[in-house]
Amino acid sequence: MLASFHIENFSALTDQILAATTAEVETALNSRVCTLDDLAALLSPAAEKFLPMMAARSRELTALRFGKTTQIFAPLYLSNFCINRCAYCGFAADNAIPRKKLTINEVEREANILKQRGFNHVLLVTGEAPAKAGVDYLEEVVLRLKNKFAALSIEVQPMEQEEYARLFRAGVTAVAVYQETYDRRVYNQVHLAGKKCDYEYRIATPARAAAAGMREIGIGSLLGLADWRAEGLALGSHLAWLRKRFWQTNFTVSFPRLRPAAGAFKPLINVTEKNLSQLMFALRIFDPDVGLILSTREEARYRDGMLGLAPTRYSAGSCTDPGGYSSNDHTGEQFSVGDHRTIDEVCRVIVNKGLDPVCKDWDREFQLN
Ligand code: SF4
Known about the structure:
Layout: H1 10-18, H2 22-30, H3 36-42, H4 51-66, E1 69-79, E2 85-86, H5 104-117, E3 121-126, H6 135-145, E4 151-155, H7 161-170, E5 174-176, H8 184-190, E6 191-193, H9 199-203, H10 205-211, E7 216-220, H11 228-245, E8 250-254, H12 273-286, E9 291-294, H13 300-306, E10 313-315, H14 343-352, E11 356-358
Parallel strand pairs: 1-3, 1-10, 1-11, 3-4, 4-5, 5-7, 7-8, 8-9, 9-10
Antiparallel strand pairs: 2-6
Bound molecules: iron/sulfur cluster (SF4).
The site of iron/sulfur cluster has 9 residues, from loops.
């Protein structure tokens, strides 16, 4: 039985962060190794006046660990069926949107378009409906696509370790599973029905995927649900916990901010671009090796400004509805996208910033087992 990660008291994280002093922020900025207490200081209101220094430190560490590379990927939505009712999501079971699950041939058609556009890393996304898009379907998709792409990640329903192991053998290289919020009270408030209501099962999922041998695990919080500062400290704690147990695994963190979606949900708290920047700089300083993902949820202007400062991976040219790359007959999308540029346009900006867009940073040949 795998050990579990816990956040005992989410509001205590907020209290710790709000109590941080200027002196503690300075200590954190000058530390060679950043502790969780240092992370709390970097996330605090006291750190806001140090934002330019945090950006400079974050830029330096990002360049040291990742060189000039900015990885590029695209999501490929396979299905928008979902049994859960997450108050904030366009795919929620009670939203009356057109539903679609791609056939294997339709998946291949979408994949061919992404390949032609230059993508070599694709994130396969589904709603959470195991009876529609379960492990058998995902395995079939992966077996069909694995020779087209260097990396295939999944963002689907949480699974058992054996199911992850099966998908890893089929060719999945990475699993993304976001806790959405580490605040159990808010978690219960926004997850209204379905298996996702089980906070414990979800928070234990990254460890199950890592134990199954996945090369990379992505964790994240959906910003706009609970105190973003405390989410940052919870993410840092979860990351440190996972690193201790799965030292051979690569980790990434995502910071999706809530976007307009079907339904009438409004973010419970406002998270600004400045807040998001502080969060990313703090995480980079805390864990210089972690991959940080900035998706097309964010506006082009903001994504361009953040290049080289902390994020290491960008999505580009994204459609968030199944079949959206090959058809104009759009089904329901998960959320509306903030950056509508093509991969070529995004890559051009990356190059103009003196960075290298990288579409392939992995090959199955590297895999030992
Ligand atoms: S967030 Fe995921 S689980 Fe929740 S409704 Fe949307 S697709 Fe379903």
